[in-house]
């Protein structure tokens, strides 16, 4: 439809013509929801007098969706920023979404996508790939489905580093605070913790030491307050940094000093972990390397040079002041 105007797109999308212009030219940032709505309308109307439509006619939009469970996660935000930059270097735009898989299948404007910390089953991944035929990169799941690649953190190696530190700690009455059910990272970290706890501490009581904080600071705070008040544990292995933040808050309110009275470690090395007091010992992953591997594997899938792949990004331990060690 050659006579479609920006004004017509704007009316259907419920935005101004200027906003439509910003979205189609990429010259100014608008909200992700607005961007998606405008691009979807433009495609439906077959808007043509610009590069965007020329790309769509060739079957390319240079848009990549990033599906995540929440925008509020510090780790999600930091990882996405790195990934977005790496995609932009290759001429792609990243659009973060928290909607369901049906939204992606229905709009059908993306060249491919990444799934980060979003609970999906293998069947859902298969359905998404078969419905779109586009490359998928999984950052928190494993799959050998064709046209997919998993670029994941080495949770096994990371948990080994954490528990090796607690083996040297003065505090060895350990509590494990895990994330939500259905989370790949949580399951992987729990299995790894179980293995290394038995190997390093020669104990079989892991299950009674495992609690659920759902990767949320508030829930972890309430749990930790109860555990600390009743003096049940003096060491806390937290399956992400938000969980550790909840333990810190509970300890502070009870007059307990982290790194002296109790030991705490986190996972993910989020930006705030070095600014709490004492700074949090936590597992890190090179987010720049992770982002580059995401884009590298996406392009390899797109070019059909690989059909499927799995890459594990090595973990390292950032040692700070939240673990009290045995006196030598």
From TrEMBL:
<feature type="domain" description="HTH cro/C1-type">
    <location>
        <begin position="5"/>
        <end position="52"/>
    </location>
</feature>
<feature type="domain" description="HTH lacI-type">
    <location>
        <begin position="4"/>
        <end position="58"/>
    </location>
</feature>
<dbReference type="InterPro" id="IPR010982">
    <property type="entry name" value="Lambda_DNA-bd_dom_sf"/>
</dbReference>
<keyword id="KW-0678">Repressor</keyword>
<keyword id="KW-0238">DNA-binding</keyword>
<dbReference type="InterPro" id="IPR028082">
    <property type="entry name" value="Peripla_BP_I"/>
</dbReference>
<protein>
    <submittedName>
        <fullName>LacI family DNA-binding transcriptional regulator</fullName>
    </submittedName>
</protein>
<dbReference type="InterPro" id="IPR046335">
    <property type="entry name" value="LacI/GalR-like_sensor"/>
</dbReference>
<dbReference type="InterPro" id="IPR000843">
    <property type="entry name" value="HTH_LacI"/>
</dbReference>
<dbReference type="InterPro" id="IPR001387">
    <property type="entry name" value="Cro/C1-type_HTH"/>
</dbReference>
<dbReference type="Pfam" id="PF00356">
    <property type="entry name" value="LacI"/>
</dbReference>
<dbReference type="GO" id="GO:0000976">
    <property type="term" value="F:transcription cis-regulatory region binding"/>
</dbReference>
<keyword id="KW-0805">Transcription regulation</keyword>
<dbReference type="Pfam" id="PF13377">
    <property type="entry name" value="Peripla_BP_3"/>
</dbReference>
<dbReference type="GO" id="GO:0003700">
    <property type="term" value="F:DNA-binding transcription factor activity"/>
</dbReference>
<keyword id="KW-0804">Transcription</keyword>
């Amino acid at each position: 439809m050659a006579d479609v105007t920006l004004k017509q797109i704007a009316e259907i999308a419920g935005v101004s013509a200027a906003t439509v212009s910003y979205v189609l030219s990429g010259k100014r940032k608008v909200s992700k929801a607005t961007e998606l709505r405008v691009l979807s309308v433009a495609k439906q109307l077959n808007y043509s007098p610009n590069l965007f439509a020329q790309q769509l006619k060739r079957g390319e939009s240079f848009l990549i969706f990033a599906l995540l469970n929440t925008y509020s996660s510090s780790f999600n935000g930091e990882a996405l920023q790195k990934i977005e930059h790496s995609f932009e270097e290759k001429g792609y735009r990243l659009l973060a979404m928290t909607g369901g898989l049906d939204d992606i299948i229905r709009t059908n404007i993306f060249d491919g996508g990444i799934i980060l910390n979003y609970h999906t089953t293998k069947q859902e991944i298969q359905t998404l790939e078969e419905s779109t035929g586009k490359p998928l990169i999984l950052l928190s799941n494993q799959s050998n489905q064709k046209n997919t690649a998993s670029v994941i953190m080495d949770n096994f190696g990371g948990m080994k580093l954490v528990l090796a530190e607690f083996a040297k700690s003065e505090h060895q009455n350990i509590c494990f605070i895990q994330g939500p059910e259905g989370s790949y990272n949580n399951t992987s970290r729990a299995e790894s913790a179980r293995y290394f706890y038995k190997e390093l501490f020669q104990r079989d009581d892991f299950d009674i030491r495992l609690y659920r904080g759902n990767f949320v600071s508030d829930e972890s705070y309430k749990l930790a307050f109860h555990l600390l008040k009743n003096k049940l544990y003096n060491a806390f292995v937290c399956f992400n940094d938000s969980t550790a933040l909840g333990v810190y808050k509970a300890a502070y309110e009870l007059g307990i000093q982290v790194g002296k009275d109790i030991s705490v470690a986190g996972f993910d090395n989020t930006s705030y972990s070095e600014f709490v007091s004492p700074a949090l010992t936590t597992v890190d992953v090179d987010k720049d390397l992770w982002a580059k591997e995401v884009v590298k594997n996406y392009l390899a899938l797109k070019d059909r040079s690989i059909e499927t792949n799995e890459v594990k990004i090595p973990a390292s331990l950032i040692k700070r002041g939240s673990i009290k060690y045995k006196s030598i």
